């Protein structure tokens, strides 16, 4: 009787695959265990078992698995269920979900090795030419990897040759799996058993009477032991006393000390723990009570709390409540930038009960957190993380908090799965019967719509902690001639005056410009030529510090041209401005101010953000210039002024969410001003002072913005009234792409009774030499969502079966952001 296991491969494959297993493996393999399996010609993958059964596959001969890698499941049934939901809802391959859900260190690397069978004597004359080449190579090195053999034979399909050599018993094939996760081991020391008792101390000191340093160490050891009452690491011992590690080694050599190793967690907050009794204000307490009340009959609740209303403290109280009842808590944040401050705040409160999980943590750290959560460790009952934290192996999730729920970074753009972490987390919470709290000062239209319709609970927190008023907002009209005359660079005199005042009061300033680099466009004043990226249809951004032009889409760069490439004129100018230019101008206008910059160019590396945020917090920086990173929940207590350098490029972004986003961005950045005691000030510079959004920001009129935007969404057929699926087609051949896009568009619009738009040329219509066209499917509320997706999937499958379109890439983005 044959036995089989069904596995998911970590590849862009929608189906599971069937492999043969032994009867004994059939008895031990459970869903969620990793299994190394051969796939394709010469590769081994870490697959994941989903079930065992006795039905041979219909379409292919099942191969045997290579080896079972886990004794116990490392992925839970709940996770598998959640992955299936993601694959089906976001129309992507289950293999893609698996690959991105796991810390990469858990998907092991494999190498196929060839060895020579040494117990057989071989006559080289019996070998074919190919075989002889391999034989020869194996004389020089004991084993060969598959790619080396390919190189030796100069061909890809080497397995027929190898199979023959195996039959002749010349070689054996051996696949080695290298595990990449390594636990962190720390050296510890203890006295040998016979000396451990105090009575024997005198005897021990006698032995050491001529080695004063070693004697000192032994005495110190007893002292630490009495105080710490826990195992003593070599580091602890050596650092507590002025001796060299060599003395420890000498004692080990004499058999007095014994060395051993203990496994340590890589991330440890224990030292940071400071008990702080948290007192909620009466407004916070009221919100807290209302949230608990709302949880009684709603799965999801929105906490709409203005900036600096103290939402975080309300979250902390809630977390306490849930972990006290033994539940796990997931706390999602839009971006890493936020976590530094927040982790410090939460670690101070909860110590090691908190774990942090995001892509800037190392592989090993992530595996450690994975295992802690899987093992229901005391540590890691509260997980803070960016969107991928949602993939951890929870087993008793009680609460999910999505902070700054309106942030678009919760939607993964690339690669697949293109999921929205807020929405996927709500589904996850439902699986556990857990509650979800969505928090924001500027909720997304979709979420607020759900709250208004009572699908979600709705709690308002509308005063700032400590009763500080929201900042006073002043608009500078850049069209006005009077203002225009008094500009220094991109600074109006109003803004300059306020900066000067803040600086003289010893207060700090934040300046927001939603563009990095020096300026987005370089232009020849003689012929009007604008340098474009050679691979993308977009102008190159000037970066002054490196004197370079850079493409923000593909990353390519070139030296700033000395003359125009078109007419050789040297009369080149720059247009528009980014954060680098603002920083530059500041050094002229305020030569004594210390200016810092926070954007993608200055925050690379694990601690990039941390450094800038810390030095701003420590007041080593007076003025912080930055992009939208500044809008994400940062909490500084000495910022009295926020300047928005130019509101217009946000407003006129070609995107149905542009107005909503402009409102959110400006309100959030403004919210950084005057958070703790004194009322803050905001200056917004714009060419459109009478724009509705500007007025709504100035008046903190969220409801006005919401009502107006919702109305437009209805008229123009956008969410929440319509669900969007965007299809992006890419190919290097322009004509082929155009034909393909047209074909797909026609078939979709013929088969779907709903709006299908396109094929459209996006604003940047070529990236890395691939041309791009988009098609948008708009699914109205009264049409079945999953049914429509099935039709779209069928049409995509037939598109792929058209020979001439096969090479066209199609990216499917459900709930397009
Ligand atoms: P939000 O996230 O709503 O913008 P925060 O949670 O960052 O606001 O709170 C704003 C500031 O007020 C923070 O510095 C926070 O430490 C402080 N704060 C809020 N609530 C309390 C409280 N109950 N006790 C002490 N400080 C508080
Ligand atoms: Zn020119
Ligand atoms: Zn480019």
Automatic annotation (TrEMBL):
<dbReference type="Pfam" id="PF00271">
    <property type="entry name" value="Helicase_C"/>
</dbReference>
<dbReference type="GO" id="GO:0006269">
    <property type="term" value="P:DNA replication, synthesis of primer"/>
</dbReference>
<keyword id="KW-0378">Hydrolase</keyword>
<dbReference type="Pfam" id="PF17764">
    <property type="entry name" value="PriA_3primeBD"/>
</dbReference>
<dbReference type="Pfam" id="PF00270">
    <property type="entry name" value="DEAD"/>
</dbReference>
<dbReference type="InterPro" id="IPR005259">
    <property type="entry name" value="PriA"/>
</dbReference>
<dbReference type="GO" id="GO:0003677">
    <property type="term" value="F:DNA binding"/>
</dbReference>
<comment type="subunit">
    <text>Component of the replication restart primosome.</text>
</comment>
<feature type="binding site">
    <location>
        <position position="533"/>
    </location>
    <ligand>
        <name>Zn(2+) 2</name>
    </ligand>
</feature>
<feature type="domain" description="Helicase ATP-binding">
    <location>
        <begin position="292"/>
        <end position="461"/>
    </location>
</feature>
<dbReference type="GO" id="GO:0006302">
    <property type="term" value="P:double-strand break repair"/>
</dbReference>
<feature type="binding site">
    <location>
        <position position="527"/>
    </location>
    <ligand>
        <name>Zn(2+) 1</name>
    </ligand>
</feature>
<protein>
    <recommendedName>
        <fullName>Replication restart protein PriA</fullName>
        <ecNumber>5.6.2.4</ecNumber>
    </recommendedName>
</protein>
<dbReference type="GO" id="GO:0006310">
    <property type="term" value="P:DNA recombination"/>
</dbReference>
<keyword id="KW-0413">Isomerase</keyword>
<dbReference type="InterPro" id="IPR041222">
    <property type="entry name" value="PriA_3primeBD"/>
</dbReference>
<feature type="binding site">
    <location>
        <position position="564"/>
    </location>
    <ligand>
        <name>Zn(2+) 1</name>
    </ligand>
</feature>
<dbReference type="InterPro" id="IPR041236">
    <property type="entry name" value="PriA_C"/>
</dbReference>
<dbReference type="Pfam" id="PF18319">
    <property type="entry name" value="Zn_ribbon_PriA"/>
</dbReference>
<feature type="binding site">
    <location>
        <position position="536"/>
    </location>
    <ligand>
        <name>Zn(2+) 2</name>
    </ligand>
</feature>
<comment type="similarity">
    <text>Belongs to the helicase family. PriA subfamily.</text>
</comment>
<dbReference type="InterPro" id="IPR014001">
    <property type="entry name" value="Helicase_ATP-bd"/>
</dbReference>
<feature type="binding site">
    <location>
        <position position="567"/>
    </location>
    <ligand>
        <name>Zn(2+) 1</name>
    </ligand>
</feature>
<dbReference type="GO" id="GO:0008270">
    <property type="term" value="F:zinc ion binding"/>
</dbReference>
<dbReference type="GO" id="GO:0016787">
    <property type="term" value="F:hydrolase activity"/>
</dbReference>
<comment type="function">
    <text>Initiates the restart of stalled replication forks, which reloads the replicative helicase on sites other than the origin of replication. Recognizes and binds to abandoned replication forks and remodels them to uncover a helicase loading site. Promotes assembly of the primosome at these replication forks.</text>
</comment>
<dbReference type="GO" id="GO:0006270">
    <property type="term" value="P:DNA replication initiation"/>
</dbReference>
<keyword id="KW-0235">DNA replication</keyword>
<dbReference type="GO" id="GO:1990077">
    <property type="term" value="C:primosome complex"/>
</dbReference>
<dbReference type="InterPro" id="IPR011545">
    <property type="entry name" value="DEAD/DEAH_box_helicase_dom"/>
</dbReference>
<keyword id="KW-0347">Helicase</keyword>
<dbReference type="GO" id="GO:0043138">
    <property type="term" value="F:3'-5' DNA helicase activity"/>
</dbReference>
<dbReference type="InterPro" id="IPR001650">
    <property type="entry name" value="Helicase_C-like"/>
</dbReference>
<dbReference type="Pfam" id="PF18074">
    <property type="entry name" value="PriA_C"/>
</dbReference>
<dbReference type="InterPro" id="IPR040498">
    <property type="entry name" value="PriA_CRR"/>
</dbReference>
<dbReference type="InterPro" id="IPR042115">
    <property type="entry name" value="PriA_3primeBD_sf"/>
</dbReference>
<keyword id="KW-0639">Primosome</keyword>
<feature type="binding site">
    <location>
        <position position="524"/>
    </location>
    <ligand>
        <name>Zn(2+) 1</name>
    </ligand>
</feature>
<keyword id="KW-0479">Metal-binding</keyword>
<dbReference type="GO" id="GO:0005524">
    <property type="term" value="F:ATP binding"/>
</dbReference>
<keyword id="KW-0067">ATP-binding</keyword>
<feature type="domain" description="Helicase C-terminal">
    <location>
        <begin position="537"/>
        <end position="726"/>
    </location>
</feature>
């Amino acid at each position: 009787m044959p036995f089989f296991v069904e596995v998911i491969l970590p590849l862009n494959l929608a189906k599971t695959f069937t492999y043969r297993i032994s009867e004994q493996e059939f008895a031990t393999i459970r869903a969620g265990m990793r299994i190394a399996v051969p796939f394709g010609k010469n590769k081994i993958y870490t697959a994941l078992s989903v079930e065992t059964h006795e039905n041979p596959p219909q379409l292919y001969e099942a191969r045997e698995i290579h080896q079972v890698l886990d004794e116990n499941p490392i992925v839970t049934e709940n996770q598998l269920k959640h992955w299936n939901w993601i694959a089906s809802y976001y129309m992507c391959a289950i293999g893609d979900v698996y690959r991105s859900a796991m810390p990469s260190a858990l998907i092991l690397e494999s190498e196929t090795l060839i060895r020579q069978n040494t117990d057989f004597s071989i006559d080289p004359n019996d070998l074919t030419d190919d075989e002889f080449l391999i034989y020869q190579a194996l004389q020089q090195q004991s084993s060969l990897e598959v790619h080396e053999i390919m190189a030796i034979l100069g061909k890809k399909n080497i397995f027929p040759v190898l199979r023959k050599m195996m039959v002749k018993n010349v070689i054996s094939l051996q696949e080695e799996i290298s595990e990449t996760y390594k636990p962190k081991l720390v050296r510890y020391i203890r006295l040998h058993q016979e000396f451990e008792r105090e009575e024997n101390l005198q005897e021990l000191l006698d032995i050491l009477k001529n080695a004063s340093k070693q004697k000192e160490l032994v005495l110190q050891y007893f002292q630490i032991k009495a105080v710490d009452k826990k195992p003593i690491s070599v580091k602890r011992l050596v650092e507590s006393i002025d001796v060299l590690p060599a003395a420890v080694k000498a004692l080990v050599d004499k058999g007095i000390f014994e060395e051993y190793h203990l496994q340590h967690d890589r991330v440890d907050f224990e030292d940071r723990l400071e008990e702080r009794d948290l007192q909620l204000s009466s407004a916070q307490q009221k919100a807290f009570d209302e949230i608990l009340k709302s949880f009684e009959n709603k799965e999801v609740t929105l906490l709409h709390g203005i900036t600096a209303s103290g939402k975080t403290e309300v979250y902390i109280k809630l977390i306490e409540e849930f972990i006290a009842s033994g539940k796990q808590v997931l706390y999602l944040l839009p971006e890493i930038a936020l976590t530094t401050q927040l982790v410090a705040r939460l670690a101070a409160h909860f110590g090691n009960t908190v774990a942090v999980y995001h892509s800037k943590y190392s592989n090993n750290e992530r595996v450690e957190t994975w295992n802690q959560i899987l093992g229901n460790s005391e540590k890691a009952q509260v997980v803070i993380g960016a969107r991928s934290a949602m993939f951890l192996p929870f087993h008793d999730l009680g609460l999910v908090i999505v902070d700054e729920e309106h942030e678009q970074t919760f939607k993964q753009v690339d690669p697949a799965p293109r999921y929205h972490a807020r929405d996927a987390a709500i589904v996850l919470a439902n699986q556990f019967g857990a509650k979800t709290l969505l928090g924001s000062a500027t909720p997304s239209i979709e979420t607020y719509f759900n709250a208004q319709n009572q699908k979600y609970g709705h709690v308002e927190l509308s005063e700032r902690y400590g009763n500080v008023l929201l900042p006073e907002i002043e608009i500078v009209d850049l069209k006005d001639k009077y203002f225009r005359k008094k500009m220094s660079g991109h600074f109006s005199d109003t803004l300059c005056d306020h900066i000067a005042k803040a600086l003289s009061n010893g207060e700090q300033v934040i300046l927001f410009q939603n563009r990095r680099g020096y300026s987005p466009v370089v232009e020849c004043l003689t012929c009007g030529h604008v340098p474009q990226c050679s691979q993308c249809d977009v102008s190159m951004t000037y970066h002054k510090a490196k004197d370079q032009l850079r493409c923000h889409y593909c990353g390519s760069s070139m030296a700033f041209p000395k003359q125009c490439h078109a007419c050789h004129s040297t009369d080149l100018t720059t247009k528009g401005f980014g954060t680098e230019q603002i920083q530059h101008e500041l050094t002229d206008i305020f030569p004594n101010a210390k200016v810092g910059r926070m954007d993608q160019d200055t925050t690379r590396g694990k601690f990039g953000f941390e450094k800038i945020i810390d030095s701003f917090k420590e007041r080593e920086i007076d003025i912080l210039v930055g992009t939208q990173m500044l809008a994400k929940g940062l909490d500084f207590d000495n910022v009295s002024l926020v300047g928005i350098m130019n509101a217009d490029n946000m407003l006129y972004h070609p995107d149905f969410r542009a107005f909503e986003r402009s409102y959110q961005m400006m309100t959030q950045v403004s919210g950084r001003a005057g958070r703790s005691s004194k009322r803050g000030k905001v200056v917004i510079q714009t060419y459109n002072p009478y724009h509705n959004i500007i007025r709504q920001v100035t008046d903190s009129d969220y409801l006005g913005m919401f009502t107006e935007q919702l109305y437009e969404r209805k008229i123009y057929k956008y969410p929440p009234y319509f669900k969007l699926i965007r299809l992006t087609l890419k190919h290097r051949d322009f004509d082929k792409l155009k034909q393909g896009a047209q074909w797909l568009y026609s078939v979709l619009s013929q088969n779907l009774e709903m709006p299908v738009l396109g094929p459209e040329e996006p604003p940047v219509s070529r990236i890395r030499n691939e041309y791009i066209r988009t098609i948008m499917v708009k699914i109205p509320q009264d049409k079945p969502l999953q049914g429509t997706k099935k039709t779209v999937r069928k049409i995509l499958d037939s598109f792929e079966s058209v020979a001439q379109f096969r090479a066209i890439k199609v990216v499917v983005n459900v709930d397009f952001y």
